[in-house]
Amino acid sequence: MAPKFARSVLVTFFEYGTAKVLHIRSKKVGIMSRFVQLLVIAYVVGWVLVYKKGYQDFDNVEGAITSKLKGVYLTNLANGTLNGSRVWDVADYVKPAEENNAFFIMTNAIVTPSQVQSTCPENPSAGNCTRDEDCAGPSPVTGSGIRTGNCINSTKPGVKTCELYAWCPVEYGDPAGGKSTPLIEVQNFTVYIRNNVIFRKFNQRRRNIRDSGGEGYLSSCHYDPAHPEDLCPIFSIGYILNTSESDPEQRELMLAQGGMIEITVTWDCNFDRDPSQCLPQYQFLRLDSRDAQDYPGYNFRYAEYYREGSTDRRTLYKAYGLRFVIVVSGTAGKFNAVPLAMNIGSGLGLLGVVTVICDFIVLNVLQKRSFYRDKKFEDVHADDAYKPLDESGEHDGASYGAAVNSGKKSTSAE
User: Fold this and answer.
1) Average pLDDT of the segment spanning 262-288
2) What is the CA radius of gyration of the chain?
3) Coil/strand/helix, residue 254
4) Among candidates 26, 42, 19, which has minimal Cα distance to 361?
5) Which helix or strand (DSSP H or E) is residue 265 part of?
6) Are 305 and 313 in contact (CB under 8 A)?
7) How many Cα atoms sit within 13 Å of 79 on the Cβ side?
8) What angle do CA 83, 304, 138 make, to 5 degrees?
């Protein structure tokens, strides 16, 4: 076994392989090779160079966002926690006042006024009790305060709850299940989204407002998707809400329960053209689940603190509303000879695949594959060719002679 393997290694070592040019004059094979070549060329030219702009160098956008809201509304409610007349302006319904690439508009709220630190009964929705032993032990993290260990009458007749040391009275009510929204007019408010971007590689800066004419036009314009060249980045909240959610009932629930909307500003630019044609595109997408049963929408709590005499007090707000997250994305391209040369070189390299595919089909699939295989591969023995020995140590003349004869096989086709 070992000597045969050694002879095979020596035979392979003392030989040299070179490509043989074989011209196959066949309509079938010729059409097949030209078709594969056409596919490769179409891929390189159509997909790589034209569609993917393989002749350009690319850079990702970098940018900063600022937002400013406008709108004032008067409420005059007879029921609920927002009783009486009240004017709501930006300082009231935008909480917090400034965020990174985001803003929040309050559309509904539970307001608990004049809270003071004292003892009071827990909200019945947090759990009932029948005796003091039910209120023993650590206070639950979902409660409104610290349990004193006493079971007392609640604000709901016939129901007892645990006594708490907390900001009293505790929060009651939950408007999220209802459909009336005291701040429904926020749909008429507007938001000004200012976006400055830069493409560092090309030293190009752009912004989504006009470079000339001053900012006076911003006081009267509104965004029109049919005319992005107007560069008016002022959007009504109603337009954003309608674009991100088409169902009127869902929009009403979003105003009552809150929701999350993504605003995407996309800069896809071609700096082989006039940079003034580099314009932003806006998209609006609802992020929160419309089918959520537990904790739907979006809400949070904040408080306003004040002092009456020597007593510290606060007004607690559970704010429901729309949170808008702004995302800036995009790429820009400009002609560069380096990627063009690289893509053309890669395309020429792919043409080598044509030979591999056609050789495989000719030598393994076609009916005359044996004939083509004999023409493709041929052994040529020089005078100093290595002559393997048999196991007895003598030249294997029979096999060597057969190999020589095979190299002299006729090349005429049938």
Assistant:
1) 94
2) 40
3) helix
4) 26
5) strand 259-266
6) yes
7) 4
8) 100
Per-residue pLDDT of 354-396, as tens digits, reads 888 888 888 888 888 888 787 777 777 777 666 665 544 455 5
Taking alpha carbons only, the member of 138, 119, 118, 135 closest to residue 127 is: 135
Angstrom distance (rounded) from CA 210 to CA 276: 10
For residue range 214-266, what is the model confidence (pLDDT) as tens digits?
A: 557 787 888 888 888 788 899 999 999 999 999 998 988 899 889 999 999 99
Distance CA 365, CA 290 (A): 57
Task: Provide the pLDDT confidence category of residue 405 given band limits of 50, 70 and 90.
Answer: very low
pLDDT greater than 50 at residue 408: no
Output DSSP code: residue 51: I
Question: In this structure, what token pair is assigned to residue 176?
Answer: 């999220």
Work out the mean pLDDT of the chain and round it to a whole number: 84
- Nearest Cα to Cα of residue 73 among 214, 193, 226, 190: 190
pLDDT score at 407: 43
DSSP, residue by residue, 189-244: -EEEEEEEEEEGGGTEEEESS-SSS-SGGGGT----TT-GGG---EEEHHHHHHHH
| Helix (H) / strand (E) containing 340 | helix 337-364
Q: Judging by beta carbons within 10 Å of its beta carbon (0-12, 13-18, 19+), is residue 386 exposed, middle or buried?
A: middle
Beta strands 62-70 and 102-121 are unpaired
The count of C-alpha atoms lying within 13 angstroms of the C-alpha of 243, restricted to the half-sphere facing its C-beta, is: 17
Q: Which SS3 state, helix, strand or coil, does residue 121 take? A: strand
Strands in 331-335's sheet, in edge-to-edge order, are: 56-60, 331-335, 269-270
Q: Tens digits of per-residue pLDDT, 329-364?
A: 999 999 999 999 999 999 998 888 888 888 888 888
